[in-house]
Amino acid sequence: MPSDVEQVSRPAAAAPRQRTCTLLSIVTPAFNESENLPVLYLRLVRVLDELGIPWEWVIVDDHSRDDTFAVISRLARSDPRVRGLRFARNFGSHTALACGLHHARGACAVVMAADLQDPPETIPALLNEWRQGAHVVWAVRRRREGESAATIGTARIYYWLMRHVAGMKELPSTGADFFLADRKVLEAFREFRESNTSVTALITWLGFRQSRILYDKQARLHGRSGWNLEKKIKLLVDSITSFSYVPVRIMSYVGLLVATLGFLYAGFILVNAAIGKPAQGWSSLMVVVLVLGGCQILMMGVLGEYLWRALEECRGRPRYLIEEQTEPETPGDARSDT
Question: Can you give 179-229 as a three-state secondary structure string?
Fold first, then answer.
């Protein structure tokens, strides 16, 4: 189904030489998407064959519980342009996305979801911006069809925090997880081995020349999203701790404020005692103890999030393990990523 795509105007700049796409990679993480993948394949074939450029489709199965990998295998047998990899266990959608980008062979790669919320008909507009010289092209959501108010609200909170707390002003306020990345960006991305982070935030942090287009996010065709509240909270914490020291700085400010209030209160008690009005009862004391104890436990929890992630990186475990793939392993491919 064609999508309504609008290109965002950019400041005038020297026109670079237009790029030629020798191979376009489509990267799709998938979890329990056996019904959506065949439909997405037909739409990709129709759009990409009309462009007349070589392409490949890299699908990473995040250890689905249904027959997603069987569907991928059938598609790969019927079309050699389709390649599939299956994780040894569920590592998460952002890890699956990173794996797909590591295995992409194209001059550029388009990242899109398997649930058909990202219309393949948007790809020509992404390619057009890339040919004009952009290294990263974001497809920014103008509208989101079929999404609940809670989903849209949590997404807006996440991107607001990333823009104003993590300092990533380049991230679109309405969100963008559908994008194109140039080969230069893919090679730079391979240098990063972080396990708990947001791939889209990391791509933004890399810099390079970034552009954007607007599109309408479609409703999910089949199945239910596995992106529950627990995963959303983990992504938020991962993103903030990966790109911002603000929580630790807030802890310092809170500690300074509490200490100041404590000294003022101690002075108040001493003055009252000196004039013959000692403090009465234990209620105020218990309130102070509980508030201070709660602040200390909260601060320990924040520090624990940073320390746990530092320990996770120091362990040096592979970022993912591949259980199976749809083609024989070649020297350029990796069974795991460290």
Answer: EEEEHHHHHHHCCCCCCCCCHHHHHHHHCCCEEEEEEEECCCCCCCCCCCH
Sheet of 178-182, strand order: 6-7, 210-217, 136-144, 178-182, 108-111, 24-30, 55-61, 82-87, 320-325, 336-337
What's the Cα-to-Cα distance from 166 to each of 231, 236, 242, 312, rounded to whole Å? Answer: 19, 11, 9, 21
Q: Using the structure block, give the residue that is written with the tokens 């191979």.
A: 23
Alpha-carbon gap, residue 312 to 196, rounded angstroms: 8
Q: Domain coordinates of the chain in residue numbers?
A: 6-12+21-243+318-329
36-50 confidence digits (pLDDT tens) = 888 888 888 888 888
Contacts of 267 by beta carbon, 8 Å cutoff, 6+ apart: none
* DSSP for 159-173, written as a single string: HHHHHHTS--TTS-T
Instruction: Provide CB contacts within 8 A for 38, sequence distance 6+.
Output: 71, 75
Q: What is the pLDDT of residue 13?
A: 44
Distance between CA 335 and CA 7 in Å, rounded? 39
Cβ-based neighbour number of residue 93 at 10 Å:
21
Instruction: Name the residue among 103, 119, 105, 132 with its Cα closest to residue 14.
Output: 132
Element (H, E) at 122: none
pLDDT digit string (tens) for 271-291? 776 776 666 665 666 667 767
CA atoms within 13 A on the CB side of 187: 7
Q: Is 45 helix (H, G, I), strand (E, B) or coil?
A: helix
Residue 3 DSSP symbol? -
Radius of gyration in angstroms for the set of CA atoms belonging to the chain, rounded to a whole number: 25
Quote the tokens at residue 288.
């102070």
CATH of 6-12+21-243+318-329, one of 3.40.50.2300, 3.30.565.10, 3.40.50.150, 3.90.550.10: 3.90.550.10
Say if CB 63 and CB 86 are below 8 A apart: yes
Question: What tokens does 160 get?
Answer: 């607001």
Q: 68: which 2 tokens?
A: 């997603």
Report the residue count for the chain. Answer: 338
